[in-house]
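Re-run with default settings, no changes from the original entry. Doing this only to confirm the output is reproducible before filing.
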Amino acid sequence: MVLDRRETPPSGGSILGIGGSPRKGGNTDCLLAQILDAARSVGARTEQLRLPDLKFTPCVGCEACRRDGLCTRFSDDMMDLYPKIIEAKGLVLVSPVHNYNVTAWMKAFIDRLYCLYNFNDNRPNGWSSSLAGQGRKAVIAAVCEQEDKKDMGFTLEAMRLPLEALGYEIVGELPVLRIFDAGKVAEVPEVIAEARRLGTLLAEETC
């Protein structure tokens, strides 16, 4: 599938959920599923993807996308994912905390969004986002076994700042603490309730 950044901006109602955990069926997948299920319950179209299930290469900084307007260095699963990102008005990113940050899969995914920027010859500030100004909204969440939010380190910021730069408004953040064992997040009613509230909010904001 060819990435065409000139496509019509999304009209609303579609939400793409991206999970960055290598542990299938774990807390990240559960949390993401709850957010998207709540969004569907109020009429949104949703899709849930696990980054470790995809085959894609991290950005190598070749800068070819500055010239070509899209990533031409690799032919991998990101090429099918780009049109989904462009089409969806809502985006959900969820990652467990790995060493005070997002997982390697989530970081690689975010870095591969570099091709969605437009650059000119002025440095360092000569850039804009091809996704900006289209009413895009996002929710981000992170799961951590420690008890203090500071032990999440840069995890939420590592998702929030790139999305804001791309033109998304972050309508909600969910830091989840004190959970490690796979699937245990489903046993914490207040966390599930907040996840579903954010899913409903995102759907309402993007419809």
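Residues 1-9 have pLDDT under 50 and may be disordered. The chain is about 35% helix and 20% strand.
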